[in-house]
Amino acid sequence: MSDVRVRGAAARIRVVRPGELDAREIERWRELRALSGAPANPFMEPEFSQAVGRVRPGARVAVIGGGSAGPIGFFPYERGPLGQGRAIGFGVSDSQGPVLSPEHTLTAGELLSACSLSSWEFDNLEAGGGLFVPDAAEAFDSPVIDIGQGYEAYEAVLRAGSPKFFRTTTAKERRLARQAGEVRFVFDERDPAALRTLMAWKSAQYRRTGRRDRFAKEWISTLVRQLAADRPDRAPGCSGVLSVLYVADRPVAAHFGLRSRTVLSCWFPAYDTDFAKYSPGLILHLRMAEAAAGAGIGLLDLGRGAAEYKDALKTGELRVYEGASVRRGPRAALYRLSREPSRRAHSFVRDRPKLAGYAQRALRQVGRLRDR
What we know:
It comes from Streptomyces niveus. This protein has 372 residues and is of the alpha+beta class.
């Protein structure tokens, strides 16, 4: 544990492991999130940082201040061996940033200095994370589904805005039932075998598309299994929800995400490719939206990334940012040399649809070669 003063006692910063936060601090974290007015994204809740802390030894939380009203902020992060920092859960976290009271007077440089960080990298910085937004290199839209008025209202939006998509998807569900057996959906499946099936499908999808298999990393697969074991009554801010679409009791599509009381953050969707012609993943998402609305959830965050199904399902977007805040000094130059060329190359390809298409085909070819 470290204890650093920044411009007076009001900005005293104490760095702890996520598991060292006490009950009062966790409650204060939740209060500050509620005061921010931002959607209650589960990745931004204390339970997610605590879960990452159990599998990532470099996970830390800077507790800012601590007067009679409690801390004025929290900054979850991971620290590398050379002082290079990243958002906590970087690589799988879909919403990132500090949790701060409006009264804070910190600068990004002061916060990084107090945490002994030469840099802090992010790829899904929440729009409200104003302390670091000026350091963003790029901005992205994260599509969302608003079900705050109930599923029927959302279905009416789909019928009006994406009528062909809605008709085709519901017709495929009826055809699936006729040709393969009874279709059944479970919103919060607790069978560990279903989670293993989903992870196997997702790993196969990563390989098939030439992408890095996230579940090949032990800390990610362990994190997912641990979050899947949490229940909303024990972890109201962030618990796992496994949703499964069954046909004749055979799983054909599944999704594992994180939920708070009001937001479901979509994370790992996958399906059985034997049933691809029925678009079971799309059927699953519609069923999931209906069940989530019934459970009091008002928003589904589909996550950053271009995809046709997201365009068809979404009702709006949230803004997220990618980039890094880097303190002045020799390590800043090292960071830029190691990270910026890669970032610029990815951005160059993303901004040119023809090149992006070539890149996608190349990745699929790599995936086919891997499977031989």
